[in-house]
Design goal:
This protein is α/β, with parallel strands linked by helices and 111 residues long. 36% of the residues lie in helices and 13% in strands. A three-stranded parallel beta sheet has the order 1-2-3, with helices on one face. Helix 1 runs parallel beside helix 2. The N and C termini lie far apart (40 Å).
Length: 111
């Protein structure tokens, strides 16, 4: 599987960057990328605009593999806060990890 990298600008992408990055993402998938990794290493001052950009990129991926790497502690905390932690490849708190199924025993009471 070919994984392609999309780099976010630092110190933090702005709302104006969103359209350009979404267009770039669409072109990467159209060119045959099976998965895109969004490199956020340059994002040192994340804010709500960064969250907007990542949310729009997630929507632009249209269910295709899209993940964020290189996120610093501030961006990780912000993504946890707004519920977009799955972009980091981590399960949300209280959610099972991807690919993990909860077992149900025959004697378990109905919920």
């Amino acid at each position: 599987m070919e994984i392609t990298r999309l780099v976010l600008p630092g110190p933090g992408p702005t709302s104006q960057d969103a359209a350009r990055l979404c267009t770039r993402l669409a072109r990467l998938y159209d060119a045959g990328a099976a998965a895109v990794v969004c490199d956020a290493a340059a994002v040192t001052a994340p804010g709500l605009a960064t969250v907007e950009v990542l949310a729009r990129l997630r929507l632009a991926a249209r269910g295709r593999p899209f993940r964020v790497t290189g996120a610093g502690p501030a961006l990780r905390a912000l993504l946890h806060l707004v519920g977009l932690v799955e972009l980091l490849g981590e399960p949300e708190e209280g959610e099972p990890a991807v690919g993990v199924q909860e077992g149900v025993e025959p004697d378990d009471p109905a919920v």
